[in-house]
Amino acid sequence: MSAARLDVDALLGDPEVRTIVCCGSGGVGKTTTAAALGVRAAEMGRGAVVITVDPARRLAQSLGLTELDNTPRPVSLPGAEGSGGSLHAMMLDMKRTFDEIVEAHADPERAREILANPFYQSMSSSFSGTQEYMAMEKLGQLRESGEWDLIVVDTPPSRSALDFLDAPKRLGRFLDGRLIRILAAPARTGAFRLLGAGVGAVTGIISKVVGAQALKDVQSFISSFDAVFGGFQERAERTYRLLQAPGTAFLVVAVPEPDALREADYFMERLAADRMPLAGVVLNRTHRPEADGPPAEEALAASRELEEGGEHPLAAAALLLHARAARLRDREAELRGRLTAAHPRIPVAEVPARAEDVYDIGALREVGEALGEAGPDGVPG
User: Fold this and answer.
1) Which residues contact 338 (CB under 8 A, 6 or more apart)?
2) Cross-referenced InterPro entries, in alphabetical order (predicted)?
């Protein structure tokens, strides 16, 4: 069963679509896809911003920028000046974003206490889920600013789950968890008396394990952070609802390889379970069948015959290369067929494999064009 083709240009041109979230496992081209979508949207007249969490900084290089940071930077698009659109790009700085939230939700004195706390400094830089949480937070900030009419999000790579959807709940459970509350109890007025001497025994043991100063840092952090924690939860819930809204479109990015397509299948199932609006699948680095040429097995047999005869070695080599390419295309077609059979109602756009890596605006524009040509009436490649 052939899947419907994803009309990427219609998606980018729809003024009701305000956020596009590119998700998928690592190494499938999410960052390139997000950047190409931003370039094409800007050239179609939209004011677009791309946010990435890719630590490789390839996006900055491809967009012609010396660096990306936590502030959206304008991107020059030669030849698209008359489109009326614009493109900005930024790379998430999770520590800086965390600091900004604290500063926005706490009075100056309490904010200084939190920012200077060693436990906070460690947690804001390395706690599991912080990067994903801050990606959602930055998305919420960009939407609230109203400065751009399209935000393209390159999500953190994940092998087995949509971690950025779980991050707010995970961070909330940690900060509101029983252990943290026990650790913080002595720092709260009256809490130590109410919970009893058992808390003292627990904190005494923990103090011996992690050190008295570390325990004191945790207690001080929780005591100060209590005043702003409600704001974190409220913002996380608001951004989560934003992701479920009709103005958001998720794109699952994959490549025609077994592991990547298994992950893509999981992403689609998870998005459906969370009632997230899935627009379609982008299948990168595909190889389409050639119009002419023998099937793989025939080409391989002919190559062997010529090789055994010792004649026409160039023809034998050419047939062997053709056989290998045909086998690759057949394998991809089989994998693609499994995906579309499992999700027949989800449209797919295919981007042909490139001979060279994407390294500049011109290459990003070509990827965007390939995505646009993969619409209902187009032929990828």
Assistant:
1) 261
2) ArsA/GET3_ATPase-like, ATPase_ArsA/GET3, P-loop_NTPase
Q: How many residues does the chain have?
A: 381
pLDDT of residue 212: 55
With a cut of 70, say whether residue 144 has pLDDT above it: yes
Distance from C-alpha of 139 to C-alpha of 155, rounded to nearest angstrom: 11
> Is residue 361 one of the residues assigned to a domain?
yes
Residue 64 lies in a domain: yes
**Bridge-partner residues for 251, per DSSP?**
22, 280
Distance in angstroms (rounded) separating the CA atoms of residues 225 and 219: 10
Task: Read off the pTM.
Answer: 0.79
Residue 86 lies in a domain: yes
Mind giving me the DSSP string for 21-65?
EEE--TTSSHHHHHHHHHHHHHHTT-EEEEEE--TT-HHHHHTT-
Tally Cβ neighbours within 10 Å of residue 147. 13
Query: Cα–Cα distance between 89 and 52 in angstroms, integer?
Result: 8
Structure token pair of residue 285: 């680095």
SS3 285: strand
Structural domain including 167 reads: 8-292+326-373
Strand-pair partners of 50: 89, 152
Name 74's bridge partners: 88
What DSSP assignment string belongs to 188-214? STTHHHHH-HHHHHHHHHHHHHH-HHH
Q: Cα separations (Å) of 335 from 5, 20, 264, 266, 328?
A: 16, 26, 12, 15, 11
Instruction: Domain count for the chain, please give it.
Output: 1
Give me the pLDDT at residue 91, please.
85
